[in-house]
Every structure is written in structure tokens, then in C-alpha cells.
């Protein structure tokens, strides 16, 4: 009989942070309007919180033993990231796969290697705990002493190209396709691509595809760059099925586990140059 694992649901009400406005008619007479508007960052956060809640309803079979949902226990620092860096439309969306155990799972920020988030993005704060914690993959937030190589390589590249984070986020944003992480009973990371075909992963894809399409529309994204083949594949499917006009490209994943991945920074820079996008990040 298979053992089942479920994510913890967040029962707290969502913070829509909405505001009412007055709209002028053609005759310049101001009238109260019932339309409630939200800014981009708050709309994105609401979409992400709803996605985390939806994914929290899914029961995963073995080998999945642990499910971490940083949008629940690390929501405050994630919200800092979104509100600070995603309040405007973005030309380029870099799309990651899902949280890594020493990155977003610790900080709430995509590819969130501790020193990069704290020192370059200037984000830090208290982080909670997942409902069920793997003994060798404990969440200690910004006290974590492990470094996520993928995050250090990715954010390190843009620190080198841009100098300051504001320059990077002027036209670009980094976002994860799926906001939850899976591990087996020994703490081995399980990627979405490794979960066997079935109802569970179909539900994940359905929910995440919808939010990705909505995110591309919300941010008015022109180019989606999948970080790795899986993210590129999901982005292509979403763009095609939703009839979006965004172009989809791919950067090699910065993980040290990926084959032939030495000199990743040089390879990624070359790719950005081939895409005609390097100028977006350099003076």
C-alpha cells in the first residue's frame, strides 16, 4: 500500500491589498466606480497564493515523502521579492522549474541562494517551517549554511552583467513554474520531470500552466526563457495552448548535476548574445 503525503494548506485570508479609485467620464464628472483595481505585484501574489492552495490539495504517492511549499512558510520574504522587483511589466521572464532545497525552499525567492538574496537582492527576514520536515533537509531560512550552486551561478551571472539588481529587473524577472518542492524519504530532491505520469502530475501541470499563462499576460512578457529543458517545454505548451504572442527560448540549467555544464556563465552569456538580449543587461 502506498503512503501518501499532503502539503499543509494555508487557511489565512489572502491579502488583496486593493484600492478603490474614481473614474472620470467624458464630461469630466467624477463618479464612484465599483471596479476594484490591484497593482501588478499584488495580482501576482494573489495568483501565487491561490496556486499554492490548489497544489496543497493534491495527494502525492511514493516515492514522494515530503512536500515543501515556500509560498506558505516563507511567504513574507517571497512577497518582499515580488513587491520590490515585480511592480511593472517585464519584457523578459526567466522561468525556473521549482524550488531547490538550499535556495527557494530556504528563502522564498526563486533560485534563492542565501548570500545572493541577502547581499545582492537585499531581501531577508524570518522564515517558518514546512508542515512535515525532512531531518537532513531542514529549513533554517537565512541561517542556512548550505549554498545552492544553481542560484549562485544564475544570480551571479546577472550581478556580473548588470552590476546592480535594479538594472536587471528593469526589463526582466525570475519566476518558478511550480512553487513546491518534493523529496523522497532520504531527502533526495525529486523534480517535476521525475514524477511518474498520472493524476497528480496532471493536476500540477494544469494548475501551473494556467498561472504561467496569466503571469505572461499580466507582465506583458515578450520573451520567456526557460532555465533548462523542462521549463522551456512547459512554456512552449502554455504559449501555444493559450495563443500567447511571447517567444520561448532556453538557457542551459545552471545545476552542477547537468551534463557538460562547466563554464556555465560563459555559455549562458553567449546564449543571451545569440538571442539578441545581452544588451538588456549590460551598459
TrEMBL record:
GO terms (BP aspect): base-excision repair
Keywords: DNA damage, DNA repair, DNA-binding, Hydrolase, Nucleus
InterPro entries the UniProt entry points to: SMUG1, Uracil-DNA_glycosylase-like, Uracil-DNA_glycosylase-like_sf
Pfam families according to UniProt: UDG (PF03167)
Subcellular location: Nucleus
UniProt keyword DNA-binding, yes or no: yes
Annotated ranges, domain Uracil-DNA glycosylase-like: 84-265
Keyword DNA damage: yes
UniProt-recorded name of the protein: Single-strand selective monofunctional uracil DNA glycosylase
Entries under CDD domains matching the protein: UDG-F3_SMUG1-like (cd19374)
Lineage of source species: Eukaryota, Metazoa, Ecdysozoa, Arthropoda, Hexapoda
Family: Belongs to the uracil-DNA glycosylase (UDG) superfamily. SMUG1 family.
A single GO molecular function term of this UniProt record: DNA binding
Cellular component, GO, one term: nucleus
Signal peptide segment: none
Amino acid at each position: 500500500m502506498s503512503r501518501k503525503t499532503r502539503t499543509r494548506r494555508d487557511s489565512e485570508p489572502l491579502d488583496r491589498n486593493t484600492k478603490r479609485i474614481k473614474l472620470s467620464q467624458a464630461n469630466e464628472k467624477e463618479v464612484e466606480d465599483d471596479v476594484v483595481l490591484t497593482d501588478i505585484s499584488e495580482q501576482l501574489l494573489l495568483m501565487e497564493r491561490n496556486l499554492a492552495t490548489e497544489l496543497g490539495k493534491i495527494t502525492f504517492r511514493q516515492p514522494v515523502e515530503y512536500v515543501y511549499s515556500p509560498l506558505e512558510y516563507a511567504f513574507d520574504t517571497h512577497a518582499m521579492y515580488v513587491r520590490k522587483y515585480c511592480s511593472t511589466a517585464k519584457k523578459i521572464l526567466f522561468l525556473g522549474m521549482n524550488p531547490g532545497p538550499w535556495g527557494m525552499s530556504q528563502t522564498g525567492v526563486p533560485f534563492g541562494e542565501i548570500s545572493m538574496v541577502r547581499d545582492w537582492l537585499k531581501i531577508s527576514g524570518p522564515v517558518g517551517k514546512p508542515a512535515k520536515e525532512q531531518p537532513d533537509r531542514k529549513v533554517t531560512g537565512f541561517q542556512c549554511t548550505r549554498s545552492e550552486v544553481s542560484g549562485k551561478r544564475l544570480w551571479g551571472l546577472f550581478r556580473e552583467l548588470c552590476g546592480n539588481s535594479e538594472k536587471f529587473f528593469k526589463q526582466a524577472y525570475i519566476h518558478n513554474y511550480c512553487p513546491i518542492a518534493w523529496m523522497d524519504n532520504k531527502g533526495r530532491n525529486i523534480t517535476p520531470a521525475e514524477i511518474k505520469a498520472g493524476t497528480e502530475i496532471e493536476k500540477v501541470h494544469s494548475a501551473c500552466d494556467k498561472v504561467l499563462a496569466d503571469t505572461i499576460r499580466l507582465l506583458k512578457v515578450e520573451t520567456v526563457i526557460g532555465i533548462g529543458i523542462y521549463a522551456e517545454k512547459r512554456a512552449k505548451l502554455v504559449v501555444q495552448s493559450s495563443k500567447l504572442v511571447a517567444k520561448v527560448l532556453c538557457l542551459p540549467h545552471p545545476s552542477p548535476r547537468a551534463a557538460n555544464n562547466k563554464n556555465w556563465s560563459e555559455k549562458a552569456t553567449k546564449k543571451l548574445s545569440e538571442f539578441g538580449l545581452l544588451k538588456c543587461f549590460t551598459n
